[in-house]
């Protein structure tokens, strides 16, 4: 078995228990990527606002002309033209905002996807896949609301609001004072309520992440779940997460329900006040009927932008709640973020690792110790695995040790086998060679040089790695084979498939290399998936091959054919293999025995049987042909 790190909460930052928070300033880069379109939208919004502001003035003039029994002339046509222009501008502006909103979602997803696929492997050890997928999906979608629900439209709304305010001040300062009093109360109410929207929105998005993670877990293990008769229990567990998301969504809805009606109530109260007081002032002769009508129209124009403003507050706070989860990932360092600090002049290794200290071994471990991060849970509720109950990630002194002072050398061109009981540290050794992790203590060397001084891309180009649970990517045989060798020919692909005894897979489907393998390789058997992963590594023909229990899923006949293929390809190359079968390791140049993270023996099969009791026991009971 591979050495699996202990997991911690996937939701909280290190050292935090309340979840990540985002600021409006962090939102601006996503918006400003579309600055040219937004400037044009703002201009249209201002033009539309000016066209709207002109309408009450024309209505007042129409009333005045009618009262004077004079012909309307072109005033009516001008009013109609303004209405049409305002409608056209509003429609076009709405389209631009919707398109730009989709652009914001796209750009945020690109940034997040790029970051996710460059994160250190340790981050994936401590986070749930479904939650990460949720951040790419639902969290980024929340950013669209910033543009489509009022933020940019608020620019034109501000012009309308200020213009209406000035016009109302000119028409009747007394009525304006009463109106402003009502609006001030509404703004204060919204401000007090909106502070709760961001926190509730973040919690709601975190619950959505829980749902995605639980669904991904259940679907990924659906066969195991059904075979164990656990379908109903899993359904209840997933439904519980869904209900949690629903409850948080309802909480957001409750807060929004208090904010949304405020603008409507403010409009109604203002209208009643203006109508009552304004009617009295008209009756007393202090205000003309035309001016009262114009004032009421300006009142509506002032209240409508206020509604947009309140909506913008809600949508921005909801977006900031989701952005906190997005920004948490974007703020994480890339896998190679600190490489230049470790090695300012990252070196390139030559083909077949030649030219760099030729006399040095291909791989060497020098007193290497390593530990995965451990999870610390709240002692008051040790079974609780929600984000807020996890304590911060411990430092290295609190981690569970996997390797302890491991030292050995792998000469160039030799075949080395790693054996030992489960949890001995075998898979971790391969992970350190691939530099998925760096040692806590000591160093791993290639060609005599510390791996941390080598360029990661060049380092991995020297290594072919086949994992224990060899993944098969959804797609075709060709897609899987050419993952690490995009320029390989079809002939080379077919040759390597037949070399690993997968010719039958090619022949049974008329599509050949285009034959679909299904999600997670479901169209292939376990042995076929393993051999396809080996074929993928062999196609690149790297100077160093790492095989993590690569023949564990094969029967005797296929294992023999596989070993023949590996023997042919590994000639002149360095091979490090983990296996539990005697037939896989007995012909190795040297065997390294590991137990509890330490090297307890090295030598040939005969030497180890004679000198190392653990190896003798493994050979007798586990390493069976």
Automatic annotation (TrEMBL):
Membrane as UniProt keyword: yes
Region (Disordered): 378-398
GO MF term list: ABC-type oligopeptide transporter activity; ATP binding; ATP hydrolysis activity
Membrane topology: Multi-pass membrane protein
Pfam families assigned: ABC_membrane, ABC_tran
Domain (ABC transmembrane type-1): residue spans on this chain: 39-318
Cellular-component GO terms for this entry: plasma membrane
Highest taxon above the source species: Bacteria
Positions of transmembrane segments: 37-63, 75-92, 151-170, 176-193, 257-280, 292-316
Localization per record: Cell membrane
Annotated ranges, domain ABC transporter: 363-621
Gene3D superfamilies in the cross-refs: ABC transporter type 1, transmembrane domain, P-loop containing nucleotide triphosphate hydrolases
Residue spans of biased composition, Basic and acidic residues class: 387-398
Keyword ATP-binding annotated: yes
Keywords on record: ATP-binding, Cell membrane, Membrane, Nucleotide-binding, Transmembrane, Transmembrane helix, Transport
Family that this chain belongs to: Belongs to the ABC transporter superfamily. Lipid exporter (TC 3.A.1.106) family.
PANTHER family in the cross-refs: ATP-BINDING CASSETTE SUB-FAMILY B MEMBER 10, MITOCHONDRIAL, ATP-DEPENDENT PERMEASE MDL1, MITOCHONDRIAL
Descriptive protein name: ATP-binding cassette, subfamily B
Species this chain originates from: Agromyces cerinus subsp. cerinus
């Amino acid at each position: 078995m591979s050495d699996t790190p202990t997991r911690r909460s996937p939701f909280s930052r290190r050292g935090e228990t309340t979840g990540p928070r985002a600021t409006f300033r962090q939102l601006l880069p996503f918006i400003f990527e579309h600055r040219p379109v937004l400037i044009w939208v703002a201009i249209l919004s201002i033009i539309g606002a000016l066209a709207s502001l002109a309408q009450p003035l024309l209505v007042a003039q129409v009333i005045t002309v009618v009262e004077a029994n004079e012909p309307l002339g072109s005033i009516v046509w001008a009013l109609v033209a303004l209405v049409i222009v305002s409608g056209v501008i509003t429609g076009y502006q709405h389209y631009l905002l919707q398109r730009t909103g989709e652009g914001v979602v796209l750009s945020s997803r690109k940034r997040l996807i790029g970051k996710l696929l460059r994160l250190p492997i340790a981050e994936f050890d401590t986070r749930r896949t479904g939650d990460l997928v949720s951040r790419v999906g639902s969290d980024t979608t929340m950013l669209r609301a910033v543009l489509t629900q009022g933020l940019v439209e608020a620019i034109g709304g501000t012009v309308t609001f200020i213009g209406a305010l000035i016009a109302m001040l000119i028409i009747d300062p007394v009525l304006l004072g009463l109106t402003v009093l009502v609006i001030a109360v509404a703004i204060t109410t919204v401000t007090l309520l909106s502070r709760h929207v961001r926190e509730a929105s973040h919690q709601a998005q975190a619950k959505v992440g829980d749902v995605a993670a639980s669904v991904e877990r259940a679907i990924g293990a659906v066969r195991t779940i059904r075979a164990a008769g656990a379908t109903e229990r899993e359904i209840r567990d997933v439904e519980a997460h869904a209900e949690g998301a629903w409850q948080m969504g309802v909480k957001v809805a409750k807060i929004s329900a208090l904010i949304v009606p405020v603008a409507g109530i403010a409009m109604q109260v203002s209208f009643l006040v203006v109508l009552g007081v304004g009617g009295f002032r008209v009756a007393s002769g202090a205000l003309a009927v035309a001016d009262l009508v114009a004032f009421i129209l300006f009142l509506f124009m002032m209240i409508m932008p206020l509604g947009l403003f309140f909506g913008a507050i809600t949508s921005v706070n909801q977006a900031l709640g989701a952005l906190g989860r997005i920004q948490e990932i974007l703020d994480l360092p890339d896998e190679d973020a600190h490489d230049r600090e470790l090695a300012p002049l990252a070196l390139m290794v030559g083909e077949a690792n030649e030219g760099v200290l030729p006399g040095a071994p291909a791989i060497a471990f020098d007193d290497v110790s390593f530990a995965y991060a451990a999870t610390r849970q709240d002692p008051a509720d040790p079974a609780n695995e929600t984000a807020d109950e996890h304590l911060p990630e411990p430092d290295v002194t609190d981690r569970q040790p996997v390797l302890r002072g491991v030292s050995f050398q792998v000469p160039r061109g030799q075949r080395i086998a790693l054996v030992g009981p489960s949890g001995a540290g075998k898979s971790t050794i391969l992970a350190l060679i691939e530099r998925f992790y760096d040692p806590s203590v000591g160093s791993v060397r290639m060609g005599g040089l510390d791996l941390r001084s080598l360029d990661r891309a060049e380092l991995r180009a020297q290594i072919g790695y086949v994992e224990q649970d060899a993944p098969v990517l959804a797609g075709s045989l060709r897609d899987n084979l050419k993952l690490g060798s995009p320029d390989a020919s079809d002939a080379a692909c077919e040759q390597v498939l037949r070399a690993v005894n997968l010719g039958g897979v090619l022949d049974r489907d008329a599509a050949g290399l285009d034959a679909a393998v299904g999600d997670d390789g479901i169209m292939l058997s376990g042995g076929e998936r393993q051999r396809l992963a080996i074929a993928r590594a062999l196609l690149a023909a790297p100077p160093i091959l790492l095989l993590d229990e690569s023949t564990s899923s094969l029967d005797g006949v296929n294992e023999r054919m596989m070993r023949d293929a590996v023997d042919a390809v590994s000639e002149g190359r360095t091979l490090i293999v983990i296996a539990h079968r005697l037939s896989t390791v007995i012909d190795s140049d040297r065997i390294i025995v590991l137990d509890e993270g330490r090297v307890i023996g090295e030598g040939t099969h005969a030497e180890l049987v004679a000198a190392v009791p653990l190896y003798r026991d493994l050979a007798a009971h586990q390493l069976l042909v």
